[in-house]
Amino acid sequence: MFEILEPENNGVQPAVIKVIGVGGGGGNAVQYMMDRDLAGVELYGANTDLQALNISPLKNKIQIGKEVTRGLGAGANPEVGRKSADEDREVIRKLLEGTDMLFIAAGMGGGTGTGAAPVIAEIARQAGILTVAVVTKPFTFEGKRRTEVAKAGIEELSKHVDSLITIANDRLLAVMGKAAKITQAFDAANAVLYGAVQGISDIIIRPGLIGVDFADVKTVMSARGIAMMGAGSATGENRAQEAAEKAISSPLLENIDLCGAKGVLVNITAGEDLGLAEFETVGNIVRGIIEDDSTVIIGTSIDPEAEDSLSVTLIATGISTVEDAAAADDFSHLQQPYPIRHHDPLRREVPQAQPAQSEHPHSIHLPDMDAGLPPPQHSQRAAAPASKKRRFSLSSLLRRR
After folding, report:
1. Handedness of CA 309, 248, 150, 125 (dihedral sign)
2. How high is the pLDDT of residue 236?
3. Apex 384 CA angle, 383 and 387, nearest 5
């Protein structure tokens, strides 16, 4: 048996989630989140460029490297960015006090983001904070040097984070087409950054009937190996199947095979019309692509405003590492990305992309972040079926841990 628990105030403090945008690209990403009223998280901007900070509408801003740069920026030199963050380690440490989970947003290839982000991640990890970085890789036309700088920065950053989401700007060209405006392209990247943060934060913050709490998220996100995260939503008769399939595919980010995932965290959000058959459909799709001995945790949340929409958010971790697979990426099959939000005109539905593999050991690969999901009281862990061919067992899914 299982209990459906009504959300209640049991004295447990909600997880504290912070997002810090490092450098110009990271600052733009955080501003994008602020403009869309991302709830439940604290937003910060950190930069060596004082002028950029003064222009930024963010409320929480910190200037790093005052002595190193005199407020003039890092000059595309990651070493200057690193020294700037080192100079203000204590300031960063105080900013992170009381934080349970930290997202670091940055553009790789420049000075401040590339150099300072790994230092901030290191400080966070030393403080025991669950740390996830979401970064972009430069366009090829920006030059070989910038690409090499970005590669080195990502490699260094990967040593200090629990999970790493990478977005290749080159994919924006393939996904959106060369006729797209530059502002649209960067908005598309920012939308993925936003979707990653919104998807995970909603899992932790939003109340649900079969809840997934921060401990569940931390368990899954801390797993070693490649990680993947996705979300999708759909309406209509086949909404559960369509939403689940979107959550496990992505035309914009580097896809991977989920077969070897050691842990999977799933959340389903829908209105009061959510049916048991739909619950089982999502479980069957997830179970159909992973190993029998994988740990599956599934939560649900009832959203009265969801109407006919059903959303699925999925995090899979512990996938075997594949080195340098992204070096030969073929983007020719990609079309428009899935919608991050229904009202966002930049996101359109597309057929599933062909799987590609990742180049980073603990990278998260984020497919369609179409919606965010819940968390709350008691998490339910799904028992693995005896065979991958066997249908998903609803009774075992709902069994208490």
Report:
1. positive
2. 95
3. 150
**Greater model confidence, 9 or 291:** 291
What Cα–Cα distance (Å) separates residue 169 from each residue in 201, 244, 334, 370? 25, 26, 13, 20
In our burial notation (b when 16+ CB lie closer than 10 A, e otherwise), range 366-391 reads: bbbbbbbbbbbbbbbebebbeeeeee
Q: Average model confidence (pLDDT) for the chain?
A: 76
Checking if the pLDDT of 144 tops 90, the result is yes
pLDDT score of 354: 42
pLDDT in tens, 77-121: 999 999 999 999 999 999 999 999 999 999 999 999 999 999 999
CATH class of the domain defined by 229-398: alpha beta
CA–CA separation, 99 and 218 (whole Å): 13
Q: Note the pLDDT tens digit of each residue in 171-198.
A: 777 778 778 888 888 888 888 778 777 7
> What are residue 299's DSSP bridge partners?
267
Under the phi-then-psi rule, with left for phi > 0, alpha for psi from -120 to 50, and beta for the rest, what region is 145?
A: alpha
Distance CA 165, CA 72 (A): 29
Is pTM beyond 0.85? Reply is no
CB 263 within 8 A of CB 397: no
* Best CA proximity match to 233, nearest among 246, 219, 251: 246
Q: Residues 17-161: name the CATH superfamily.
A: Tubulin/FtsZ, GTPase domain (3.40.50.1440)
**Per-domain boundaries in the chain:** 17-161, 229-398
The answer for residues whose C-beta is within 8 angstroms of residue 186's C-beta and 6 or more apart is: 28, 172
Percentage above 70 pLDDT, the chain: 72
